[in-house]
């Protein structure tokens, strides 16, 4: 087998559990908290979840284990995008399950939720599990984006569960997957299947967090990976002094990843989508904002810089989202055929000019031609423009270049502007989990099994006090319904876990806001370096700046 030295060394790493889970299975008891209410729309959520609503928050403590002895057959699913640490959730779950009774069984459904529906699974063994300890990736069983949301699917899931004698299903996923976990838990309870459902909070995007969940796993490792490379680029920029680097970072919607990377590396510019939306910034205003930094630095002889662009930003620019809506309309159904029949870009351009409102055409017209063409080429299966495929890092550098050309003409800028572009996303999703993510994930999995063993259903595995050393972490469970509210989705009111966007009055953004004007003109870069797995705790076990600031540290 081709194992890297690091992979071998990581096999030897023992993930840290919260102190209260360290005394062995026989010494874990439940402390019940208060009954819960959903964060909003209590009556509606209660009506939709009559069997699982209002359950108590619980924490685990050191004390005599009073759970009932029962053979457990647990199924586990990885749902959605990869996030470092997923393997450790499964390892922690497996270890707790086997430590409780070696006859317990853990089944891994393959390639995401569809594995459950297709009854495509493997049964884990020590040998199999050991190969994945403390490694990145979701390749242990694969992941997928099928959603478990319809009654028909739930029925199939119940049949598969019955066939294998499954007592519980653990769903490792983001806000949508955990919303669906709650609905599945309610279905299982309503139909007296006896199958429990437990969720685990995953996503590098960091947008599954609330007053109960301090952070989703994977965010720590992914942002550290991007920050390492951004720091290296900053140093390169400061060495060569001839390039402006435009770095797009992942995060489908929220800008938590971009903000954390900015807090770690202190770049000259970092856009925050939530601020763009709140201030209703136009593309032109954003371009001017970046161009101001380029010009100010050029005036001091610094024709270089680094700008971080969050992946989802264009959707937050009001005029741009109107433009996209109009384009979707313009190409709806058969109208696309008429458009595609046009032979030249010139003809297409005229078609577009006729079809868009004057305001949207003005927005369209300032875009570089490659981006204009991307808007009309890349459609998803529903006929929508795939916003994530728009190369926003190139879009903004092109707009900035145009602004600088105007300024040069006006005599207000006399620098050089050479832009380079990067996109960091996939390279961070399967990194070896940092010590934090290795520990957090293992704890989430271990804890998920304790929730199962104590008979809880519709709970999210909750490990908190995360800004403190693992010894002080608090393990327990929170009913998923507590985190839900009603939102309008596809023209219907749906119960969902609220997606957490960057809060503009929150401590991480405030910290950034207070310093960014200086960073924009000075060269105040910080170089986080590569994730360290071995060495002093302040280097190896450090979590994100976002979490530290949120916790007032
Ligand atoms: P999840 O929300 O499922 O964790 O996925 C997050 C993410 O990595 C986003 O940051 C990104 O926009 C998206 O997945 C990419 O999706 P895909 O892997 O399907 O290309």
Describe the structure.
It is a single chain. Helices cover 44% and strands 15% of the residues. By secondary structure, the chain is of the alpha/beta class. The strands form three sheets. A nine-stranded mixed sheet has the order 1-2-13-12-7-6-3-4-5, with helices on both faces. Helix 3 (86-100) links the parallel strand 3 (73-78) and strand 4 (105-109). The mean pLDDT is 95. 1,6-di-O-phosphono-beta-D-fructofuranose binds at residues 80-81, 83, 174, 203-205, 250-252, 311, 388, 429. Residues 80-81, 83, 174, 203-205, 250-252, 311, 388, 429 line the site of 1,6-di-O-phosphono-beta-D-fructofuranose.
**What class would the helix/strand composition place it in?**
alpha/beta
DSSP, total strands: 15
Low-confidence stretches: none
| First and last CA, distance | 44 Å
Q: How would you concisely characterize the structure shown here?
A:
Helix content is 44%, strand content 15%.
Give the secondary structure arrangement, pairings included.
Layout: H1 5-11, E1 28-35, H2 42-48, E2 56-62, E3 73-78, H3 86-100, E4 105-109, H4 114-117, E5 121-123, H5 126-130, H6 151-164, E6 168-173, H7 175-190, E7 196-201, H8 219-240, E8 244-249, H9 256-265, E9 269-270, H10 273-278, H11 283-299, E10 305-310, H12 313-316, H13 318-330, H14 335-341, H15 345-355, H16 358-366, H17 369-377, H18 392-410, E11 419-424, H19 426-429, H20 435-453, E12 459-464, E13 474-479, E14 484-489, E15 492-497, H21 507-521, H22 537-540, H23 545-550
Parallel strand pairs: 3-4, 3-6, 6-7, 7-12, 8-10, 8-11, 9-10
Antiparallel strand pairs: 1-2, 2-13, 4-5, 12-13, 14-15
The structure holds 1,6-di-O-phosphono-beta-D-fructofuranose.
